[in-house]
Specification:
Elements: H1 7-30, H2 41-62, H3 72-86, H4 89-106, H5 140-154, H6 163-182, H7 186-207, H8 209-214, H9 219-236, H10 253-266, E1 270-277, H11 280-293, E2 294-302, E3 305-312, H12 315-325, E4 327-335, E5 346-354, H13 357-365, E6 369-372, H14 381-391, E7 393-399, H15 406-418, E8 422-425, H16 431-439, H17 447-459, E9 462-468, E10 473-475, E11 478-480, E12 485-489, E13 492-497, H18 500-512, E14 518-524, H19 529-542, E15 547-554, E16 560-564
Parallel strand pairs: 5-6, 5-7, 7-8, 14-15
Antiparallel strand pairs: 1-3, 1-4, 2-3, 9-12, 9-16, 10-11, 12-13, 14-16
Length: 565
């Protein structure tokens, strides 16, 4: 069981946190009543951690050509910096500052004695990032303490019963564990921190009246618990017991509606967020000015780069204050009320993720806005949101065409909905399912009817792909060797062969045994036309009533994609 937080563990932490927030995003959104009942806390936390995870992956990618992996300090700094750049909403901005506080301690060099930004000793040697308290070079407890302190400093008017309370409780529990003898045990430290955070989250309705009236726990604190749970799993290999999203004394839905109504009526009209390049003195003046303009003010960051979040009635004044302080950019302004529909928007569009340039052109000809998923580079939710904006439609059908993109696509859809776009996410798991859905798309019928027809067509399409094994491995079809051709049907390895064409025929035989009317073949860039001719003959000879269509997919990760409808 790992007891240290090295670079690989930081990477795993990011991945697990993103996965956890993806699973729980909608439920966290549903309990979001404070500070504004805009139902986006889970989505904002997901987008913030997604940005952190991408930054960590970029560090690892930069080391791929070298002989060494990134150090733990590189990984935790990247995680914090990525969160700062991508922070969304009140809770996401606070989470970015929590990660910054942890990074200050965890990445501190040995020459500093492992001190955080406030001079607090954090132990450690040779750049190791160990979990725990003050003894034995253990850094996690002081890292959590620094994180909680830095987050409170970033909030203009800290309120108990929020993510801040949960963060403080996690630090308290970690420090107690260190004093009780867990100074050299990272697993014991993070387990204690999680238990303390969980108890504090359960207590939030007793600290904040709006939560008590709605019968829910704090949404931001719930998201932080998911992140801490991911840290526990990364260090111990065991996921902690799930926390019920709604408070155990959950009241009638009317109570939640009442809380949302009160929050919406009493608060400012706009949320303003921007990145800011400015020095410390200018930021101190900016804090005072923005505090007079609105509420929910959070300013996080440092070293010349800041993320500013505030709720105001005068969005222009908030941006102007940033201009006077330094250079604001990535400015996002959201209205808490209903967005007006631009009259120039078209009625409906389809946004599809595609694995190659050939399919991108094919889908574009059918009227879809496409997002290219390059091999090994899945699109982020921000790219999907931008594609939805490019479509410039009141209604959008989103086709992710990849099982791994389900959480990313869901977060993008939720973000687009906050901008006034009606989005239906069809959970297509492969490009051939997306093609089937697009084939029955009719923008002139009712939105719900169109979505049902497209979902039905996608669901009726079995999918397969052929790939080459990179190493010896156990599969559902037996042991494969490096270089073997793998035939994957509905995501599982079903056939192992030595020849691409013969393996493709075996895959088609299995798929058509259950029936079918249309076979779709999507050929990769380097696959000869002769393969398509051979497979067309194979289908024609064995299944007279089945038609075959062939498309060129261009540069894609798999040499052959197969769909059977």
């Amino acid at each position: 069981m790992p007891q240290t937080l090295d670079a690989a563990e930081v990477r795993n932490w990011c991945s697990l946190a993103l996965e956890a927030l993806g699973r729980e995003r909608e439920e966290i959104d549903a309990i979001n009543v404070y500070p504004v009942a805009d139902g986006d806390t889970g989505t904002n936390l997901y987008l913030t951690v997604e940005s952190a995870a991408q930054a960590v992956e970029a560090v690892f990618a930069a080391h791929e050509t070298g002989t060494s992996e990134p150090g733990p300090a590189d990984a935790v700094r990247a995680m914090a910096h990525g969160a700062l750049l991508g922070a969304r909403g009140n809770s996401g901005t606070i989470l970015a500052q929590l990660l910054r506080g942890m990074a200050e301690v965890l990445a501190a060099p040995a020459s500093d004695g492992g001190k955080g930004g406030d001079g607090t000793s954090s132990g450690g040697k040779n750049g190791d990032v160990k979990g725990g308290g003050d003894g034995g070079g253990n850094r996690l407890a002081p890292a959590l303490r620094r994180a909680a302190a830095l987050a409170r400093e970033a909030v203009a008017h800290p309120v108990e019963g929020t993510i801040l309370s949960v963060a403080s409780a996690a630090a308290d529990a970690a420090e107690r564990a260190a004093l009780d003898g867990a100074a050299d045990d990272g697993a014991a430290t993070v387990r204690a921190a999680y238990a303390g955070a969980r108890a504090a989250l359960d207590a939030t309705p007793g600290q904040l009246a709006i939560l008590r009236r709605a019968g829910v726990v704090d949404a931001g604190g719930r998201g932080l618990l998911a992140v801490l749970g991911a840290l526990v799993q990364s260090l111990t290999g065991e996921a902690p017991a799930a926390f019920p999203v709604r408070h155990r004394r959950y009241e009638e839905p009317a109570a939640l509606a009442s809380a949302e109504s009160c929050a919406a009526e009493d608060g400012p009209a706009f949320e303003v967020i921007y990145l800011l390049e400015a020095d410390d003195t200018a930021v101190a003046r900016l804090r005072k000015r923005l505090d007079r303009l609105g509420d929910s003010l959070v300013v996080v960051g440092g070293d010349g780069l800041w993320n500013v979040h505030v709720h105001v009635d005068d969005a222009g004044a908030a941006v102007e204050a940033g201009v006077e302080a330094g250079r604001p950019y990535r400015i996002r302004i959201s209205h808490f009320g209903a967005a007006e529909e631009p009259p120039e928007r078209i009625q409906r569009a389809v946004v599809a993720v595609v694995p190659g340039e050939g399919l991108a052109g094919l889908c574009a000809e059918a009227g879809a806005t496409t997002v290219l998923a390059r091999p090994g580079e899945p699109p982020a939710s921000g790219e999907l949101v931008e594609a939805i904006r490019r479509a410039h439609a009141r209604e959008v059908v989103l086709l992710p065409n990849d099982t791994e993109l389900r959480h990313t696509a869901a977060a993008a859809a939720e973000q687009a909905r906050t901008e006034g776009v009606r989005v239906a996410l069809i959970p297509t798991r492969a490009a051939v399912q997306g093609l089937a859905a697009l084939a029955v798309h009719q923008p002139d019928r009712r939105f719900d009817e169109d979505v049902v027809a497209m979902t039905t067509a996608a669901g009726a399409t079995r999918y397969a792909e052929l790939a080459f094994a990179e190493r010896q491995s156990w599969t559902m079809a037996g042991i494969c060797q490096a270089g073997d051709v793998l035939g994957l049907i509905d995501g599982d390895v079903a056939v192992i062969g030595a020849d691409l064409a013969a393996t493709a025929e075996a895959v088609l035989s299995r798929m058509l045994a259950a029936g079918g009317e249309l076979v779709t073949l999507v050929l990769g860039e380097d696959v000869p036309d002769a393969l398509a001719d051979r497979l067309e003959r194979y289908v024609r000879d064995g299944h007279l009533a089945v038609d075959t269509v062939v498309y060129r997919g261009g540069r894609q990760s798999a040499p052959l994609l197969v769909g059977v409808e």
